[in-house]
Design a protein that fits this description.
By secondary structure, this protein is mainly alpha-helical. Helix content is about 60%, strand content about 5%.
Length: about 2050
C-alpha cells in the first residue's frame, strides 16, 4: 500500500493516473462508515434504527490518522481541477471520484473536529464549483441540493427539517434578527446562486427545473435580508444576471414551455431587477424579450406573442407611470421598437398592438399627456400599416393607408390633436428655435412622428398615379390636412431642431431615405391640395442643397421627383410637372458634383461611394432629364436658355474635376431638336456657342466637347432637313476650326473635326467627294507633321491618322469604282498599306471611343476587297481585326466565330467558307489551336445557331433561322444571319438535288437580303428591250438596266457595329445579295422557270457591271450563257460566255484565289465546248470536223486545267494535315517515313487522297454493310471475272455476296468516297481539314461535270469505247479525286456503292446524271448482244457492257429519286425507264426480276407520265409554295409555316424520297387517278430513237417512236410504235399549195414558229408548212392583195384545210394504226381470243396472248409479224360494238412538248369525243384538288370535277377596237345576258382583270392574241384560284418552246393559277369562222345551264356529273366553222372535265 506522501506526490504529478484506486486503498479504513453515510442525510431515522450506533472511540483514531492527508488532498484536488489548460478527462474523472471520497471521509470524522458545523458543507460548495467549471451541471445541481438539505438540518435541527420537508422548502429559512447567521446566509445564497447559474447554463427544457428556480429565488429572500449591503449587492447581481439569461432563453424556446411559466419567470426577473440599483436593465431585458418574440413570429401563434408582449409592456407601463421622468424615454423606445417590428410583420400584429397602444394612451392620458400623444401616433401609424397590408397598395384611389384615415376622421382628429399638443409641449411649433436640451427632449416625439409619417409617405408615393387622378375631389384632400401637417412638422423638426449628430444619424443606415420620402410626399400633397406649395418646395430644395444629405438620398430624390413629373405631365399638369422636374435635375446634378468631388479627393469612404465608371452614366441620365425638362418647356413656355446654361455649368464643374466625363448628349440633342422646331423661313439657326461663350466657368476644352456633340446631333437629325442640317454642321465645324481648336495643343482635335467635315461633305453626295478627300488629305498631312515634330504620335492622333487613311481609300474607290483602283501603286492601296503599318505597329493602341468606328472601317475594306476577289492584303487585315478583338479581351474562338458568321473569312462566291489567307493568319496567331478539337468545339458553340458548315441536320438549321427572325421587329443583324442560314441551307439542298425546297429557302434568303440592300444602297433602274436576230427570227429580250447605284449617304457617314450580332457593311450586304440572285437564278433555271431566271441574272449582271465586280460579272455571264444555250439561242450564249472569258482574263491579277480562278476557267471552257456541241447537233448540217475539234480542244483545256493546275499543290498541305489527323486514331503501329515512301509506287504519287486510310463512320459502315445483309467473311483478293460478270448481269449470288463486305472495306480503305467527304466535312474538328473537304467536293463536282460532257461528246461522235472509259473514270471520281480507271474486279463494288441511296447526298445531281449515262450506255451495249450469239463469242467493249437489266433498272430508279427535282434530267431518266420496261415484255435481254414480272405496264406507264411536263410539275410545286409563303408573310416571318406544303399528296410529287418507298408511291399514284382515262403521248427521237432502232433492228427509215400510254386507276396499257413514214406533201402540186400566191419577203411581219426546232419538223414537215401558209394567207397584207379575187383566196384556204384534214388522217393511220383504239381505252382481252383462236398458229397465238397479258406492245422488226398482229387486233376490235368504244367518259391527253402543237383532238377517232389536254398528270391532280376538295363523290367509279356557271362570267370584247365585225356580232349578245359583266372596246387595268378572274366562274375574251398584253402571264400565275377561260384570239392556246426548257403560253399561266378549263386556239384564225365557233360554244353552254336544274337519276340536282361538260360541245362548234380543220381544229380545250351548273342568284 502506498504511503500518504507517495499518494500526495502522485496527486501533484502532471498526469495523475490510477489516483482513485490509491485513494480508495489508502482510505479503506473508512469503508464501514461510508456505506450508510449516503442514506443518513436522506433518511436519518431509518438509518439509526438499522445500523448500530457508531462509537466515538472508533472514529477518533481515524481522525487522527487521516486528518492531515484529507486536508492536503482537499487542498490540492480543487487546484488540479482548476488548472489551465485542463487536465485530461480521464484524470479529471478520477480526481472527482477521489474528491468525493475525501469529502465523505471528512463528513465521517467531522464530529471529532473542532469548528463550525457547516465547515464540511463549505468544502462541498467548493466541490460544486469544480463540477460547474467542468460543465457537469447536473452533478453540480444534485450536489448543491444535497448541501442545501444538510444546511437545512444545521440551520433548523431535525424537527425543523422535517417540518420544512413537509412544506417542500428548498432554502433554509433564517430569521432576520439572528445576526450570527449572516455567514450561514451567505453560504446558502452562494449555493442558490450557483444552482441558478447551473440551470442557466444547462439550457434544460424541463419546466420543473425553472419552477424550482423560481422557488429558490422566492425562498432566498430571507437570506438576502440578513446580508450586509456589500454581500447583498454581490449575490443579487449574480442572481439577476442569471435570471436575465434564463428569461431570454425561455422566450427563445417558447414553444417548449407554457406561457404562464414565461410570464412568471419574467415577472420574477423584473422584480429582482427592480430591487437592485440597475433599473435600466429592465428595459434591456424587455427589449430582448420583444426581439426574441418578433424573431419567432413565423413559427409562433399570434396570441402567444401578443400575450407575452402585452405582459412586458404592461409591466413597463406600470413602472413608467411610477417613475415617468426616468423610465418614460426607455418605455417609449420599447414602444417604438415594438411598433416598428409590428409594422414590418404581418397584418395580424398591427391591429391588436394598435388597439393595445390606444388603451395605454388612455392609461397615461390623465397624468402623462405627452406619453399618451406619442402612443396615439404609434397606434395610428400601425392602423395605417394594417390597412396597407390587408388591402394592398393598389386598393382604393389613394392607397389603403390614406383611405383608412379618410374613412376614420376620428382617428385623424386624434392625430392632429396629438401633434398640436406635442408641438406645444416640446416647443417645436416653429415659433422659436429649440435649444440643445430641448432637442434631446423631443427625440421620442421625433421617433413617433417618423413612424407615423414614413409608411404614409411611402403609400402616397406608391399611389402617386391615383392621387393625381382628376377624378379625386378637393374636399377629399382637405380632410388629410392633419397628415400634411404631420409631414410638414417632420420636415421642420428634421431641418431646424435636430443637431448635426442627430441629423447624420437620421440619414444613415436604414433611415437613409426617410426625410426624402417625407419631403416628396409633402410636395405631392401640396400639389394636390394646392396648399403650402412654396413651403414644400423649399423643403425639397433645402434637402437637395444640404451638405449633410448623402448621395443615396439625392438619388432617391431625383428618381422620385422624376416619377412625379412624368405623372403630372401625363395628367396635363405641366406647370407642377415642370417644377418637380426642375428640382429633379438640380438633385441629380448635385449628386454628380458630389461624386466627382469624392472621386477626386477620395476623402469619403462609405456605402454611398460610387466609382468613376458610374458617373458618366449619371451624366447621361441628367442630360436625359434636362432634355425632358426642355420638352415640357415647349408647352409651358418658360425660358429655356437659363435652364440649359445652368445645367451645362453644372456639367462643366464636374468635367473640370473629371475630364473624361461625357458631354450631356441628350441635352444637346434636345437643343438641336428645338432649333429644328423653331426653324423659320430664313433658316437662321442658333448654335450653343453664343449662349455659352460668355461664361467664364466653361473652359474651351468643355466648349469644344459640347460643340462636337452638337455637330453629331445635327448629323443624326439630318433626315429632318438635310440642307439646314448641313448648314448648321458647317457652322459648328467653322467655329471649332476657327475659334476653338486654334492652338498647337489642339492639333489632334482639329484633325478630328476635319475628318467630320469630310464625312459631312460626303453626305451631300458623290459631287462633294473631291472636297471631302481634300479635307482628309489635310488631316493626314497635319497628323504626319505632328508625328514628325513629336517623333511619336499619341494613340489618339495615331487612330485619327488611320481613320483618315481608311476614309480616303474608301472615298477614292467610291468616286471612281470603274477605275483600276487595285493596280499596284494606286492611291487606294497606298492608303491601306499606310493604315496597316500604323495599326500593326507594336506601340499602337486604338482609342476606346474610336474602337467601333475603326472596326467598321476595317470591315468595310475587308468586304470591299473580298467582293472584288482581291485577298493579297487580307492577312494583314486579319491581323488588325484580331488585334482589335484582343484589345477587348475577346477570346480567339469568338473572333473566329464573328468573322465566320459575318462571311469575312473568304471572298465572294468562294466555294469554301474559309480562304487560305485566313488559315495562314490563324496558324500564325494560334498555331497550337489549329488542330485542336477542343478549340474547334468552342468555336462551334460561339457560332450557334450558325452551324451550317459543321453538321448536317437541316431541321436544326431551319429552326435556328426561324428563331432569328421570330422577333418583332426584325433587326438587320437577325435578317442577315438568318439569310445566311437560308442561303447555305439552300446550297446544300441544291447539292442534294432538292430543288423545290432549295428554291423556297433561296427566295427567303433573297427576300431578307433585298431588304438589307435597300437599307444600304440607293439605286434607280430603267426597263430595256433588246432585239436579237436569231437566224432570221427577231427575239425581244426585256430586262432592267441600272441607271444609278450608290451606297446610301446615311450609311456611308454612319456605320453600324453590333457586337451581339453582325457588323453589316454595304459591301458584304451587296455581296450576299448578288450571291442570292445567282442562287435563285440557278435554281429557277434548273427548274425550267427561264423567264424569272433570266430576269434575275440580267439584273445581277448589270449591278455587277455598274459596281465593277468581276467575280459576279463572270458568274452571271456564265449562267446566262448556259441558259441561252439550253434555249438554243446560240449567238446570245456565245456572247455571254465570251464576256465571261474576257472578264476573267482581264482580272487574272486581281483575283487572288487561284482555286476559284481555276474553277471558273474550267467552267467557261466546258460551257463553250457544250455550246459548240449543242449548236452543231441542232444544225441542219452535220457538225464539221473543225467544229468538233474546237469542242474537243476546249474540253481538253478544261481537263488539263483540272488535273495539271495548282489544285494538287493547294491540296497537298491539307491532305498531309488530314493524313496526320487520321494517323492519330490508327490502332496499328506507325511505319517510318522511309518505309511509307518506299511502299508507294511512283506511278501513284499523284493520287494522294486515295492512299490515305479512310475513317468509316458508323453511319457509313452501317449503310455499306447492313443494307446488303453481308455476313462477315475473310478478305479475298477479289472475285473472279465470271462472278463479276454474274453480278453485273443482275444475277444474285450468295457465294459472291459473302465476299462483298470485305471488298467494300478494302475499297474504302484505298479511297475516300464522296459521301465520306461530305460527312467528315461536317464532323471534322480541324479548320484545314474542313476547308480541304469542301474543296475536295468542289473538285469532284467539277470533274464529274467535265467528264460527263466529254463522255457525251465521245458518244456523239461514235467513240463508244472512249465514252465508256470516261464514264468509268467519272465513277472513280466519286471515290477518289484521281480520274484513273479502276480494275474490272473493283467495278462491281463501285457500282454497288454508287448505286446506294444516301440522305443529303452532296453530289446527288451529278451522281444521278452519271447513273443515267452509265445505264444508257449499258443499254446501248445490248444492241450488239443478240441472244442468237453465244455468250462466249460476244464482244464486250468493257466492264460497262456487262451490266444487266436488273442492275440498270435499280440504278435508273436511284437516279430517278436523286433527280426528282431536276426536270430535264428527270425527263430523260423517266423516259429511259419507261422504254426499258416496255422492251422487257419483248426482248429477252431486258427480262425483269421475278418480283417485277407482270407489272411491266404499270411501271412503264408510271415512268412515261413522269417524263411529261416535269418542269411544269416543279413550277406547280414552287408556285404553290410561293403563294403560301406570301400569305404567311403578313402573319409570321416563320418560314416553317410555309414548309407545311412539303406534305403534298404524292400526286403532286414526281417521286418519293427514297427507293424503298418507290413501289408504294407508284401504287398510291394509280389509286389516286381519276376514273377518267388519261392518255400520255410522246415522241422518242434523237439518240434515244437511234438506241431503240439499234435494239429492235428496225428499218433505217424509222426516225422516231411514239410512246403511248393509257392510264386509269385499274388498268394501264403502253405501246411503243415506230414512225416509219414521214408525213409530207404527196405531190408537187400540193407542195406548192401553201405558197403559190404569196412571197414571205413581201410581208412586213414574218411568221414566227412557236418552236425553234422539233422532231415534228423531221417526221411531219407538212404540218409546219400548213401553219405557215395559214398565217400568211390570213394576214392583212394578203387579204388586201386579193380583195378583188376572193375565189383565189378561198381556193388557197380550202387547199390548206384539206391538207390538214389528210394530215390528221395520216397521223392516225400511219403512226397509230390499229392502236388508235387505245386512245379510247380499248385493249384486247382474253374474252375475245377464242373467236380468232382457230385462224392463228400457236406462235401467233402465243404472241397475241403475250400482248394481252403484258398490256404492252413494241413495234417489232418483222413486217409480216406486225401485219398479222395488226389484222388480229383489227378482227378483235371489229367484234366489239362501236358503242363500247364511245363510253361517254371524257379523255385527258397529256402530250409531250414535241407533239403538243398537233391537234390530236381532231384525229378522226377523237373528233367527236370529249377531249381535254394537260401538260402533265401533276397538273391534273393540282386542278382537281383545288376545285373539288369540298365536293364528295357520289360513287367510287364516278369522277368529281369542277363546276362553273356560264352566266357568272366576265367578258372582254375587242379591247383594241379594231375587230368591228366581232364586236357587232357579240355586243348585243352580251348585253342581252344582262347579268354578265365585262368591257367592250376599252382596255381594263391589270387589277380589274385580276379581280374578274378571281371572282367569276368564266372569263370570255374576244381580241387579238391570248390577252396577255392586258394581264401578263406572271400576274395570272399569282392568282390563288382562277376562272375558266374562253380565249378566241389568234394562237391564244399556242405553247412556245424554249429549247430544253418548259414551253410558255397563256394556257399554262391559267393552269398554274388554277383555272379548271381553258378553250384556246393553237394557231392563227380568222374572225368570222372563230366567231361562229365561239357563239356555238356559248349558246350550247347556256342551253345546258338552262336544263341543269332538271333531275338526274344518278345525281342530286345542281351536282350532276353525268351531263355534258364544257368540252362536250367542241365537236359541234367545230362543225359550225366553214373551214372545219384549218379553223375548227385550232380550238382545243386545256384543263379537266368541267360541268355546268346554275348557281343561286343567277336565275336568268
Amino acid at each position: 500500500m502506498e504511503s500518504d506522501a507517495s499518494i500526495i506526490s502522485k496527486l501533484q504529478s502532471p498526469s495523475p493516473s490510477d489516483i482513485h484506486r490509491l485513494f480508495t486503498a489508502y482510505l479503506h479504513p473508512f469503508t464501514p462508515f461510508l456505506a450508510p453515510s449516503a442514506s443518513i442525510a436522506k433518511k436519518p431515522a431509518k438509518s439509526s434504527k438499522c445500523k448500530p450506533k457508531i462509537e466515538l472511540p472508533a472514529i477518533r483514531p481515524l481522525a487522527k490518522q487521516f486528518i492531515s492527508f484529507i486536508h492536503k488532498a482537499l487542498s490540492l484536488i480543487p487546484k488540479r481541477l482548476c488548472e489551465s489548460p485542463q487536465i485530461p478527462q480521464n484524470s479529471a474523472t478520477e480526481l472527482f471520484d477521489s474528491y468525493r471520497l475525501c469529502l465523505d471521509c471528512l463528513e465521517v470524522i467531522a464530529p471529532e473536529l473542532s469548528g463550525k458545523q457547516h465547515s464540511v458543507q463549505v468544502q462541498r460548495i467548493r466541490y460544486v464549483h469544480c463540477l460547474e467549471n467542468w460543465c457537469l451541471f447536473e452533478e453540480a445541481e444534485a450536489e448543491g441540493f444535497v448541501v442545501l438539505e444538510r444546511l437545512n438540518a444545521i440551520a433548523g435541527g431535525e424537527l425543523k427539517g422535517k417540518l420544512r420537508k413537509l412544506k417542500a422548502r428548498l432554502v433554509p429559512e433564517l430569521k432576520e434578527e439572528e445576526e450570527a447567521d449572516r455567514e450561514l446566509a451567505a453560504i446558502i445564497l452562494e449555493v442558490v446562486v450557483t444552482l441558478v447559474k447551473c440551470v442557466s447554463k444547462r439550457s434544460s427544457k424541463i419546466e420543473a427545473d425553472y419552477r424550482r428556480v423560481i422557488s429558490l429565488v422566492n425562498e432566498s429572500e430571507s437570506c438576502f435580508k440578513i446580508l450586509e449591503a456589500k454581500d447583498y449587492e454581490k449575490f443579487h447581481h449574480f442572481l439577476e444576471t442569471n435570471l436575465h439569461i434564463i428569461t431570454v432563453f425561455l422566450v427563445a424556446e417558447i414553444k417548449s414551455f407554457s406561457v404562464d411559466l414565461i410570464r412568471e419567470f419574467s415577472a420574477v426577473t423584473f422584480k429582482e431587477y427592480k430591487k437592485s440599483c440597475a433599473h435600466d436593465q429592465i428595459y434591456k431585458v424587455a427589449l430582448k424579450i420583444c426581439h426574441s418574440l418578433f424573431s419567432q413570429r413565423d413559427g409562433l401563434s399570434t396570441d402567444i406573442i401578443l400575450d407575452v408582449l402585452k405582459h412586458v409592456l404592461d409591466f413597463m407601463a406600470a413602472e413608467c407611470k411610477d417613475g415617468a421622468e426616468k423610465l418614460a424615454p426607455r418605455f417609449l423606445e420599447l414602444v417604438c421598437y415594438c411598433a416598428n417590428k409590428c409594422q414590418s410583420a404581418t397584418v395580424v400584429f398591427c391591429d391588436p398592438v394598435a388597439q393595445y397602444l390606444y388603451r395605454l394612451a388612455r392609461f397615461f392620458h390623465q397624468d402623462f399627456l405627452f406619453i399618451s400623444s406619442i402612443l396615439t401616433l404609434y397606434a395610428s401609424g400601425l392602423y395605417g400599416s394594417s390597412s396597407n397590408q390587408l388591402k394592398g397598395e393598389d386598393s382604393g384611389k389613394c392607397g389603403a393607408s390614406l383611405q383608412f384615415f379618410l374613412n376614420n376622421t376620428e382617428r385623424l382628429q386624434q392625430v392632429a390633436l396629438s401633434i398640436n399638443w406635442l408641438n406645444d409641449h416640446f416647443g417645436t411649433a416653429g415659433k422659436e428655435k429649440s435649444s440643445c436640451e430641448q432637442a434631446v427632449s423631443h427625440i421620442p416625439y421625433w421617433e413617433a412622428l417618423k413612424f407615423f409619417c414614413l409608411k404614409l409617405a411611402e403609400s402616397i408615393f406608391v399611389n402617386r398615379k391615383e392621387i393625381f387622378s382628376e377624378a379625386e375631389t378637393t374636399s377629399c384632400w382637405e380632410n388629410l390636412s392633419g397628415i400634411h401637417d404631420a409631414f410638414r412638422q417632420y420636415c421642420y423638426i428634421f431641418l431646424n431642431c435636430l443637431s448635426d449628430t442627430e441629423r447624420e444619424k437620421e440619414t444613415s443606415g436604414d433611415n437613409h431615405k426617410v426625410i426624402s420620402v417625407v419631403v416628396v410626399a409633402a410636395l405631392m400633397l401640396s400639389f394636390e391640395t394646392n396648399q403650402n406649395i412654396k413651403e414644400s418646395t423649399l423643403s425639397v430644395k433645402h434637402v437637395i442643397s444640404a451638405q449633410w444629405v448623402p448621395n443615396k438620398r439625392l438619388k432617391y430624390l431625383y428618381v422620385s421627383l422624376n416619377n412625379i413629373a412624368v405623372i403630372l405631365k401625363s395628367k396635363k399638369r405641366l406647370k407642377e410637372a415642370f417644377k418637380a422636374l426642375k428640382m429633379c435635375c438640380k438633385a441629380l446634378w448635385n449628386h454628380i458634383v458630389d461624386l466627382c468631388k469624392i472621386e477626386m479627393t477620395k476623402s469619403q469612404v462609405s456605402v454611398d461611394y460610387m466609382s468613376e465608371k458610374s458617373i458618366p452614366d449619371l451624366v447621361m441620365e441628367a442630360s436625359d432629364k434636362v432634355a425632358f425638362l426642355l420638352q415640357l418647356n415647349e408647352e409651358c413656355n418658360f425660358k429655356v436658355n437659363g435652364i440649359i446654361r445652368e445645367s451645362i455649368i453644372c456639367w462643366s464643374n464636374s468635367e473640370n474635376l473629371i475630364a473624361t466625363l461625357p458631354a450631356p448628349l441628350s441635352l444637346i440633342k434636345e437643343w438641336v431638336k428645338i432649333q429644328y422646331k423653331l426653324l423659320d423661313d430664313n433658316e437662321h439657326g442658333v448654335m450653343l456657342y453664343p449662349l455659352l461663350s460668355s461664361s467664364k466657368e466653361i473652359s474651351k476644352r468643355a466648349l469644344g466637347k459640347l460643340l462636337e456633340e452638337e455637330l453629331f446631333a445635327y448629323n443624326e437629325k439630318s433626315y429632318l432637313n438635310p440642307r439646314y442640317s448641313l448648314k448648321m454642321k458647317m457652322k459648328v465645324i467653322n467655329v471649332l476650326l476657327e475659334e476653338i481648336y486654334v492652338t498647337n495643343e489642339s492639333t489632334v482635335e482639329k484633325c478630328r473635326v476635319l475628318i467630320q467635315k469630310a464625312k459631312s461633305l460626303r453626305a451631300l453626295g458623290l459631287e462633294q467627294l473631291d472636297k471631302g478627300i481634300q479635307c482628309l488629305s489635310d488631316a493626314v498631312s497635319t497628323l504626319k507633321l505632328t508625328y514628325v515634330s513629336r517623333r511619336r504620335c499619341s494613340s489618339q492622333a495615331d487612330s485619327l491618322l488611320i481613320h483618315a487613311y481608311l476614309l480616303r481609300a474608301l472615298y477614292t474607290h467610291e468616286a471612281a469604282p470603274q477605275s483600276m483602283f487595285l493596280s499596284p501603286g494606286s492611291g487606294f492601296l497606298d492608303d491601306i498599306h499606310d493604315a496597316l503599318n500604323l495599326c500593326l505597329h507594336p506601340d499602337h493602341c486604338h482609342e476606346d471611343e474610336q474602337y467601333e468606328d475603326m472596326l467598321y472601317l476595317w470591315y468595310q475594306l475587308i468586304d470591299l476587297l473580298s467582293i472584288q476577289g482581291y485577298l493579297e492584303i487580307h492577312p494583314r487585315l486579319y491581323d488588325v481585326v484580331i488585334k482589335l478583338f484582343n484589345k477587348k479581351n475577346i477570346q480567339f474562338a469568338k473572333t473566329l466565330a464573328e468573322l465566320w458568321k459575318n462571311k469575312r473569312l473568304s471572298h465572294a462566291l468562294c466555294a469554301s467558307p474559309v480562304n487560305h489567307m485566313f488559315i495562314s493568319t490563324f496558324s500564325k496567331h494560334q498555331s497550337q489551336l489549329c488542330n485542336s478539337s477542343i478549340f474547334w468545339t468552342k468555336c462551334m458553340e460561339e457560332l450557334k445557331p450558325l452551324v451550317v458548315g459543321f453538321h448536317h441536320i437541316n431541321s436544326e438549321i431551319k429552326q435556328a433561322a426561324s428563331d432569328l427572325i421570330s422577333s418583332v421587329p426584325i433587326t438587320s443583324c437577325a435578317s442577315f444571319l438568318s439569310s445566311n442560314l437560308y442561303y447555305d441551307l439552300s446550297a446544300r439542298l441544291i447539292s442534294s438535288g432538292q430543288m423545290i425546297e432549295a428554291l423556297t429557302y433561296a427566295k427567303e434568303a433573297h427576300r431578307l437580303r433585298s431588304k438589307l440592300l435597300q437599307q444600304k444602297f440607293e439605286y434607280s433602274v430603267e426597263k430595256v428591250v433588246e432585239t436579237f436576230d436569231m437566224k432570221g427570227e427577231l427575239i425581244d429580250k426585256i430586262h432592267y438596266s441600272v441607271q444609278t447605284f450608290k451606297v446610301n449617304d446615311f450609311v456611308v457617314t454612319k456605320g453600324s457595329c453590333d457586337y451581339e450580332g453582325s457588323v453589316l457593311t454595304p459591301w458584304n450586304v451587296l455581296s450576299c445579295y448578288l450571291e442570292s440572285i445567282l442562287q435563285v437564278g440557278f435554281v429557277q433555271e434548273t427548274l425550267g422557270n427561264v423567264s424569272e431566271a433570266e430576269m434575275l441574272l440580267q439584273w445581277g449582271r448589270n449591278v455587277a457591271q455598274f459596281q465593277n465586280l468581276p467575280l459576279f460579272e463572270v458568274s452571271f455571264s456564265c449562267l446566262l450563257g448556259k441558259l441561252y444555250r439550253k434555249q438554243k439561242l446560240w449567238s446570245l450564249s456565245e456572247k455571254e460566255l465570251s464576256c465571261a472569258k474576257k472578264g476573267l482574263a482581264d482580272n487574272l491579277n486581281n483575283i487572288s484565289c487561284k482555286k476559284c480562278l481555276c474553277m471558273w476557267e474550267i467552267s467557261i471552257n466546258q460551257q463553250i465546248g457544250d455550246l459548240i456541241l449543242s449548236s452543231s447537233c441542232c444544225s441542219e448540217e452535220p457538225p464539221s470536223p473543225k467544229t468538233l475539234s474546237s469542242a474537243k480542244i476546249l474540253y481538253k483545256l478544261a481537263l488539263d486545267k483540272l488535273n495539271l493546275s495548282d489544285w494538287g499543290t493547294l491540296y497537298s498541305t491539307s491532305e498531309e494535315s488530314l493524313a496526320n489527323d487520321k494517323c492519330e486514331s490508327k490502332v496499328e503501329a506507325r511505319r517510318s517515313k522511309r518505309t511509307k515512301k518506299e511502299a508507294k509506287p511512283a506511278s501513284q504519287k499523284q493520287d494522294t487522297v486515295c492512299r490515305h486510310s479512310r475513317r468509316i463512320t458508323r453511319s457509313v459502315h452501317r449503310s455499306l454493310v447492313e443494307t446488303h445483309e453481308i455476313e462477315p467473311a475473310a478478305k479475298e483478293t477479289g472475285p473472279s471475272s465470271g462472278s463479276a460478270n454474274e453480278y453485273l448481269m443482275g444475277v444474285d449470288s450468295k457465294s459472291f455476296s459473302a465476299d462483298l463486305q470485305s471488298e467494300i472495306r478494302s475499297l474504302c480503305s484505298k479511297m475516300k468516297c464522296w459521301q465520306c467527304l461530305h460527312v467528315e466535312a461536317g464532323e471534322c474538328c480541324n479548320l484545314s481539314i474542313f476547308v480541304f473537304m469542301n474543296w475536295e467536293l468542289v473538285h469532284r463536282k467539277l470533274s464529274l461535270r467535265l467528264l460527263m460532257s466529254i463522255g457525251k461528246f465521245s458518244g456523239m461522235i461514235g467513240y463508244v469505247h472512249e465514252a465508256h472509259e470516261i464514264l468509268l473514270q467519272s465513277l472513280s471520281v466519286l471515290f477518289s479525286r484521281n480520274c484513273s480507271k479502276h480494275s474490272s474486279d473493283s467495278l462491281p463494288f463501285l457500282i454497288e456503292s454508287v448505286g446506294k441511296y444516301y440522305p443529303e447526298d452532296a453530289l446527288a445531281v451529278e451522281r444521278a446524271t452519271l447513273l443515267y449515262f452509265i445505264c444508257w450506255f449499258a443499254v446501248k451495249s445490248n444492241c450488239y448482244q443478240s441472244t442468237s450469239i453465244p455468250s462466249s463469242n460476244r464482244n464486250f467493249c468493257c466492264e460497262l457492257s456487262r451490266i444487266g437489266t436488273v442492275r440498270v433498272q435499280s440504278l435508273l430508279k436511284l437516279s430517278f429519286i436523286l433527280c426528282r427535282d431536276v426536270p430535264v434530267l428527270l425527263q430523260k431518266v423517266s423516259r429511259l425507264l419507261a422504254v426499258i420496261y416496255v422492251l422487257s415484255t419483248s426482248l429477252e435481254q431486258f427480262s425483269l426480276s421475278s418480283n417485277e414480272q407482270g407489272s411491266e405496264s404499270q411501271w412503264a406507264s408510271f415512268f412515261h407520265q413522269a417524263s411529261l411536263g416535269t418542269q411544269l410539275n416543279q413550277q406547280l410545286l414552287s408556285g404553290i409554295m410561293q403563294k403560301k409563303q406570301n400569305q404567311s408573310a403578313g402573319v409570321s416571318e416563320d418560314l416553317d409555316s410555309v414548309l407545311d406544303i412539303l406534305d403534298f399528296p404524292h400526286s403532286l410529287r414526281c417521286g418519293p424520297e427514297s427507293c424503298e418507298d418507290l413501289e408504294e408511291f407508284v401504287l398510291d399514284f394509280f389509286q389516286g387517278l381519276p376514273s377518267t382515262p388519261v392518255i400520255c403521248i410522246s415522241l422518242v427521237a434523237g439518240a434515244d430513237a437511234s438506241l431503240l432502232k439499234d435494239l429492235l433492228h428496225c428499218s433505217p427509215k424509222v426516225q422516231a417512236w411514239i410512246l403511248l400510254s393509257h392510264l386509269s386507276s385499274d388498268n394501264q396499257h403502253v405501246v411503243l410504235l415506230p414512225v416509219h413514214e414521214i408525213l409530207k406533201e404527196a405531190s408537187d402540186e400540193e407542195s406548192g399549195s401553201s405558197s403559190i400566191i404569196y412571197n414571205c419577203k413581201d410581208f412586213v411581219k414574218q411568221w414566227q414558229c412557236p418552236w425553234i426546232s422539233s422532231v415534228i419538223d423531221d417526221i411531219a414537215p407538212l404540218f409546219r408548212h400548213v401553219l405557215e401558209g395559214n398565217y400568211y394567207s390570213s394576214s392583212e397584207y394578203f387579204l388586201e392583195s386579193i380583195r378583188e379575187n376572193t375565189s383565189l383566196w378561198w381556193t388557197q384556204r380550202n387547199r390548206l384545210n384539206e391538207c390538214l384534214c389528210r394530215f390528221l388522217q395520216d397521223v392516225e393511220d400511219s403512226w397509230l394504226g390499229t392502236w388508235k383504239y387505245l386512245l379510247l381505252g380499248m385493249w384486247p382481252s382474253c374474252n375475245h381470243l377464242d373467236s380468232i383462236k382457230k385462224s392463228l398458229s400457236q406462235d401467233e397465238m402465243d404472241l397475241l396472248q403475250h400482248v394481252v397479258t403484258k398490256k404492252c406492245y413494241v413495234g417489232l422488226t418483222s413486217e409480216e409479224t406486225s401485219m398479222l398482229l395488226f389484222n388480229s387486233m383489227l378482227e378483235m376490235s371489229d367484234s366489239v360494238d362501236q358503242a363500247e368504244c364511245i363510253s361517254g367518259k371524257p379523255i385527258i391527253l397529256v402530250l409531250d412538248t414535241e407533239v403538243q402543237m398537233l391537234p390530236w383532238e381532231c384525229l378522226p377517232i377523237l373528233r367527236n369525243q370529249e377531249v381535254y389536254r394537260m401538260p402533265s398528270i401533276g397538273s391534273i391532280f393540282a386542278t382537281l384538288d383545288r376545285h373539288c376538295e369540298n365536293q364528295k363523290p357520289l360513287e367510287l367509279s364516278d369522277p368529281v370535277f369542277p363546276l362553273i356557271d356560264p352566266l357568272d362570267s366576265y367578258y372582254l370584247l375587242n379591247p383594241d377596237g379594231d375587230l368591228s365585225r366581232t364586236q357587232v356580232e357579240f355586243e348585243s349578245w352580251f348585253k342581252n345576258q344582262d347579268i354578265i359583266e365585262g368591257k367592250i372596246g376599252t382596255v381594263p387595268t391589270v387589277e380589274e382583270l385580276s379581280l374578274a378572274l378571281k371572282d367569276h366562274d368564266l372569263f370570255i375574251y374576244f381580241g387579238h392574241g391570248s390577252g396577255t398584253q392586258y394581264i401578263p402571264g406572271h400576274e395570272i400565275q399569282k392568282l390563288d384560284g382562277c376562272a375558266a377561260t374562253l380565249l378566241l384570239g389568234c394562237s391564244s392556246g399556242s405553247l412556245y418552246l424554249r429549247g430544253s426548257y418548259m414551253p410558255h403560253g397563256a394556257p399554262l399561266s391559267y393552269i398554274l393559277a388554277g383555272s379548271p378549263v381553258i378553250v384556246a386556239n393553237l394557231w392563227e384564225v380568222t374572225d368570222k369562222d372563230i366567231d361562229r365557233f365561239g357563239k356555238a360554244m356559248l349558246n350550247a353552254w347556256l342551253r345546258e345551264r338552262s336544263t341543269a336544274s332538271s333531275e338526274c337519276a344518278r345525281c342530286v340536282p345542281t351536282k350532276c356529273i353525268h351531263r355534258p361538260r364544257i368540252a362536250s360541245f367542241m365537236a359541234q362548234a367545230r362543225d359550225a366553222c366553214n373551214l372545219g380543220f384549218l379553223i375548227g381544229a385550232s380550238p382545243v380545250c386545256y384543263g379537266v372535265p368541267t360541268g355546268i351548273i346554275k348557281r343561286k342568284g343567277k336565275n336568268r
